[in-house]
Design a protein that fits this description.
- The complex is a heterodimer.
- By secondary structure, chain A is an all-alpha fold.
- Chain A folds into 2 domains: 189 residues, no CATH class; 46 residues.
- Chain A contains 11 helices and no strands.
- Chain B has 8 helices and no strands.
- The chains are: A mainly alpha, B mainly alpha.
- The interface between A and B is large, with 101 and 103 residues.
């Protein structure tokens, strides 16, 4: 399939809206499976199913499934298109299993790893620049959710348009390149923030250069060990603050 | 706040920056809320909830951090507020883990019988409600405990405000280093990072 079909099935809007709560029953057993089935119900009803027919169809969608929540709509749309095209449950299950991992990894990199930190860093730079409180928060929410909602809408529509062939379409969309650009923007903003920390009122100028040296060393630890260092560093800070508080009472 | 983190929408109103500012605004000092939220944000920035891993929960924690800091004397209570916030975020993350086990057992019991569309919808929405109740419980417990601790320890903090912020930023620097590693690491991003660093130093010096 090379060309998408833009025709939307009955129940698509309700299904699209439901996918904002697709993680509502996320659990260690079926993960997104129950949420996915919950989102499929309007589409199944739209195909005229009711009563036991509807219940049987819902049971076909409760199997273990997990992917990035913002891209779950892509799978929903694709499955709706495949069911309209007469695909059997085994084919649909194989499709879900095949695409979930790639979509999950893509969403983790693009959204959690790139877009979210970049938009937060932008807001933090504004905080450090002394902007009124509502400006950094508004900039973050508008910028982040602009990308967030666009991705959900794009994904759902791509799924509806391309059905089982959406994987090829996804590959051609070049979302990984987008993440690479976001990483560079993030590194730039992180540099700006780090520079502001070093020379600002709250940084080395008043607190003393020893603190800056400690900060640079701590940054190096994070850079070297990555996520493995985070919990330990936070726990260490909590212990230091607790110790100093206890000391203050002596 | 807790619902936004996973169950509903994920519009990021539960991020410390947003939750902190909103709490500060509610308490009559949005600037205090924003600054504490921004500092707490540094500790959550590099966390990635990939593959359903348990991560600290930032929304209720930010509410507690700002409320405790406010009760302990505004920005002077930053240390205490931050500890309360970080502790609540860990506890919140733990309760999310327990909730996921509970929901798994719940759906296991439903699927052992006969799943219907009505049962599945009711169960799914019940889980959203459960998450709401859990979030309220975590926030309320954190607030009560935090206020109690701030009434005892608020006067004991020995460092100046500048030294307190510097101490907290040293802790946050580990997270920022990890974030740069997540962006591709020093080798791939050093040029653009250093350009930003110079820009930040020049900009903050003006």
């Amino acid at each position: 399939m090379t060309h998408g079909d833009s025709q939307r099935p009955a129940g698509w809007l309700s299904s699209f809206l439901r996918h904002f709560v697709v993680q509502g029953s996320w659990n260690n057993r079926s993960m997104l499976g129950s949420g996915f089935a919950f989102c499929m119900i309007p589409l199944l009803r739209g195909r005229g199913l009711s009563g036991e027919g509807l219940d049987d169809a819902v049971r076909n969608h409760t199997s273990t499934f997990n992917t990035h929540p913002y891209l779950a709509g892509l799978v929903l749309g694709a499955v709706a298109r495949m069911e309209d095209g007469g695909a059997d449950p085994e084919t649909i299950e194989r499709f879900k299993r095949a695409i979930q991992g790639a979509l999950g990894a893509l969403g983790d990199v693009l959204v959690w790893g790139a877009w979210r930190p970049v938009t937060i860093l932008l807001a933090l730079v504004l905080v450090w620049a002394g902007a009124p409180p509502w400006i950094p928060v508004s900039v973050f929410l508008v910028a982040y959710n602009g990308g967030h909602l666009a991705l959900r809408w794009w994904g759902y529509n791509q799924g509806l348009a391309y059905g089982g062939g959406v994987g090829e379409r996804l590959h051609r969309a070049g979302l990984s390149r987008l993440a690479e650009r976001a990483f560079s923007a993030g590194a730039l903003l992180l540099g700006i923030l780090a520079g502001a920390f070093v020379v600002s009122r709250l940084g080395a100028v008043e607190a003393g250069w020893l603190w800056s040296f400690a900060g640079v060393s701590a940054f190096g630890v994070g850079l070297k060990f990555g996520h493995r260092a985070l919990r330990g560093a936070t726990l260490f800070l909590v212990l230091v603050i607790t110790f100093l508080t206890a000391l203050g009472g002596v | 706040m807790a619902l936004d983190a996973t169950s509903v929408g994920q519009f990021m109103v539960s991020r410390p920056l947003v939750a902190g500012m909103l709490t500060g605004w509610w308490l009559g000092d949005p600037r205090l809320g924003l600054e504490i939220g921004a500092i707490l944000e540094l500790f959550h920035l590099a966390g990635v909830p990939a593959g359903g891993f348990r991560v600290p929960e930032s929304g209720p924690a930010s509410v507690v951090a700002v409320a405790v800091s406010s009760a302990a004397g505004g920005l002077e209570g930053l240390g205490l507020g931050l500890v309360a916030g970080l502790a609540v975020s860990e506890v919140g993350g733990l309760t999310v883990g327990y909730q996921r086990h509970l929901v798994a057992r719940f759906f296991g019991a439903i699927e052992a019988g006969s799943v219907t569309a009505a049962k599945l919808s009711a169960a799914h929405l019940s889980c959203v409600l459960l998450d709401f109740v859990r979030g309220v419980a975590v926030t309320a417990s954190g607030l009560v405990l935090g206020q109690w601790l701030s009434s005892i320890f608020a006067t004991r903090w020995p460092l100046s405000y500048e030294a307190t912020v510097a101490l907290v930023l040293v802790g946050a620097a580990v997270h920022l280093g990890a974030l740069l590693k997540g962006f591709g690491g020093w080798t791939n991003r050093r040029a653009v990072f250093l350009v930003g660093l110079v820009a930040g130093i020049v900009g903050a010096s003006l």
